[in-house]
Hints:
Chain A is mainly alpha-helical.
Amino acid sequence: MTAVLFLAQRATAFVLALAVAIHLGTILYATRGGLTAADILARTHSNGAFALFYGLFVLAVAIHAPIGLRNILREWTSWHGRSLDVALSLFSLLLFVLGLRAVIAVYSA
Amino acid sequence: MTDTLRVDIWRGTESGQFQLFAIPRREHQTVLDVVTEIQREHDATLSYRFACRVGMCGSCAMVVNGRPRWTCRTRVRDVVDDGEPLRLEPLRNFTVVKDLAVEMTQFFDKWKAAQGYFEPGAEPANDFTVVPPATTERQAADAGIECIGCGVCYSACDVVAWDKDYLGPAALNRAWTLVNDVRDQAQSARLDAVSGSEGCQACHTHMSCTTFCPKAIAPTYSIAGLKRAVLRRGLRGVL
Lengths: 109, 239
């Protein structure tokens, strides 16, 4: 189990390193020319590449963040065992649902 | 050089206090010389552990001015400036038996838990195994094989301080030397043993073990090797 989580955290870190750079770079590039929110939404509307990229981003975050949080909680608190794993699985699901909701909202706006 | 050396020594077990001694400062005295002189001349109830006095057995390790060291191989002049006190504590992360002597059972139990022992298999080999010195495995094993189990790395490790069940650098280093032993017949079981929740993946790569190891071994690299070995096995489908 630990080995699976370790691999999942490293693999998603690799995805996030690229995705965060593209995400920030795009924000800086897009806002430089004075685009409004409406202009941006017009470009992301029904844009499959946008939805795929941010869908992958959300998935990577939902896997990566709870594993890191689990490690921190295990080291710094006495919270171990099944209840911790269940709580962080729910947290992972929450991140995934909220993130995907935002992606769908922007895609279909 | 001042004539007198002030020495603060931990007295007690988990609870206790420092006791101040003053002894003559000598040109080449080691920290172990200091402790021995105090025990013989000032307070015979002072407890500490030593055996060889020449850096072979590893039993005299203590925390000297905040850093884990072999006291027999540490000259006083190298750790305190003239006039400054010497502060001696038992190794960190161990249960203190009394004063400067610690209980090492848990430390060595973790070597067992990490399968830090050679497993020849059910059938003994018919002949000597030829292990060429130039092979990658032999060189990786050589890099970690000189550990004498002094506990300095274990004392230095912050992950052990946070999580008492973490196997620790010495046990994982020993496991890595065996992962590279081509004769060993328990490779899969060993990788299981070192990749539980208290195993190699818990290492933060702080490198305190590598910094303080008196034998200049790098347990951090051994642990990184274990992570790679577990990952390789996982990618082959045996997670």
